[in-house]
Fold this sequence. Notes:
- With 152 residues, this protein is mainly alpha-helical.
- 62% of the residues lie in helices and 9% in strands.
- It has six helices and three strands, in the order H-H-E-H-H-E-E-H-H.
- It is elongated.
Amino acid sequence: METWGPGGEVDELALWRQLARLMEQVNSAASRRLARSHGVSTGELLLLLSLSERRDGTLRISELVKALGTNQPSVSRMVARLEEAEWVVRRSAADDKRGVDVQVTEAGRQVAGAAEQTLRKALTETFDAAAVSDSTASLIARLRYAPAMPVD
């Protein structure tokens, strides 16, 4: 699928369609691999990684909502599942009893580390396959070879 329109301008609709197709491929491959290999969803892994990146391994639920770009009920469900697996613990915030802190356990850090490596491998494989597909090759080229922009 070509991303250039008549007159040499970027066809934003074509680019958006490529991006949607690529995201579906990437998310599907990553989700299957993470669930099969580690028993976590991509959202749960991102939550564990967000906690693991902190020195004390702790964030408030409200901070996790921001970090994951989702809503509070979704984060609460993920935390409940991860708590059941003993990968996180939650407790009332020390400085504000209305707040809830979530802390990654050592077992959670180990799962996050192993699952991150699995995710990296799945992403590389999916991007490599997309790089030779007519429908996503130009998008992969733009993503891989354009200067990296900070996420935050």
